[in-house]
Amino acid sequence: MKVLVTTENIPQRKKFDLWRDVSYERLIPSEARKTGDGPFEGMLEAADVGGVLITRSTFGALTTEVTPANIRRHGKQHTLSATIRLAGTAASRQNDRSLIHNPGEIVIVDRSRPVRLDFAAPTQSLVIEIQRDRIEGLLGPAALYSALRIDAGLGSTRLAVRFFKELVDVQDTLPPDTAARMSSIGVDLLVASIAERMTIETPKALYGTVLVQRAKAHIEANLADQTLSPAQLALALGVSLRRLQELFQERGRNISDWIWQRRLDVAAARLTDPRCMHLSIGAVAYGCGFAGQAHFSRRFKDRHGLTPSEYRRFAAQPKPAESRTA
Question: Tens digits of per-residue pLDDT, 90-142?
Fold first, then answer.
């Protein structure tokens, strides 16, 4: 990993400010202050592995708080961070959840929400920056699992932690294509860890609701996949097809009907979106998971009473109010 900053051989009066300034740029702006009476030492090491930013952060005792003002400045609301604690402990508070983060555990931090972190002693962690839509597309809103301690005793956690420890050690030797594949595998391992922990965390009465939310998020993220089916969805979520069908039916839904409804809804939105006017009807159809334009047109007319072409032309016509304004 590349060393971004180290306080070694830096005058003591400058150590903390130097480390904090680089940390602001690499991780996230925050209100940080040194705690304790001892000298402060810190180091930040960085790697970009297949487009996934990984930072190994080592530092002494401090308190840091991300405020709404920090969030408005940093522009990283589209990302989440997965923190793997390597040494030391951290006290974390976000989304009304408070926890102690111990070595071998993972915690997801939502960068769009305020958070406070307290480090009473020297600590070390790996911070993995992940695109929010990659995780939410599989697991639902980040509020369900941010600031949730993912225990070191879970098999999926042990695999994810071991994988990322090894990955940062060998990343310099990986060709770009291999690095991209390895980082994608790493994110999938993190998703598996979060999903396993959510199963434990969620009260039984709410588990079905959370599972349906995850199913719908997976559908939204994979609408263009023509192979998307109830059976494939159940496999992706790690539940039986029968159980998933029961949960949808309890909420007055049918899985297949929901998939087709969302495809048609998204297609209708694209047909009326000025930014998509360059797309052919066939491109819209394929982009929403339809195997052919004829199938798309038939289903679309059954739902909206117009063919896709008619729907697009109608949407493009000036409305009466627009005509008077013109």
Answer: 998 888 888 899 999 999 999 888 999 999 889 999 999 999 888 887 787 88
One DSSP character per residue, 18-68 reads HHHHHHHHHT---EEEE-SSSPP-EEEEEEEETTEEEEEEEE-SEEEEE-H
Q: Residue with structure tokens 């598996």?
A: 192
Count of residues making up the chain:
326
pTM of the model: 0.65
Q: Which residues pair with 123 in a beta bridge?
A: 59
- Residue 5's alpha-carbon distances to 24, 224, 267, 303, in angstroms, are 12, 43, 49, 59
Q: Mind listing the pLDDT tens digit for each residue in 149-170?
A: 899 998 889 999 999 999 999 9
CA angle 214, 220, 221 (to 5 degrees): 90
Contacts of 65 (CB under 8 A, 6+ apart): 30, 31, 32, 114, 115, 116, 117
C-beta separation of 221 from 138 below 8 A: yes
What whole-number distance in Å separates Cα of residue 295 and Cα of residue 288?
Answer: 12
- Give the DSSP letter string of 63-120: EEEE-HHHHHHH--TTEEEEEEEEES-EEEEETTEEEEE-TT-EEEEETTS-EEEEES
Q: Which of 121, 91, 115, 118 is nearest to 105 (CA)?
A: 91
Q: How many CB atoms lie within 10 A of CB 52?
A: 22
Q: What is the pLDDT of residue 162?
A: 95
Q: Per residue in 279-322, pLDDT tens?
A: 899 999 999 999 889 999 999 999 989 999 999 988 777 765 54
- Residues 43 and 122: their CA atoms lie apart, in Å, by 11
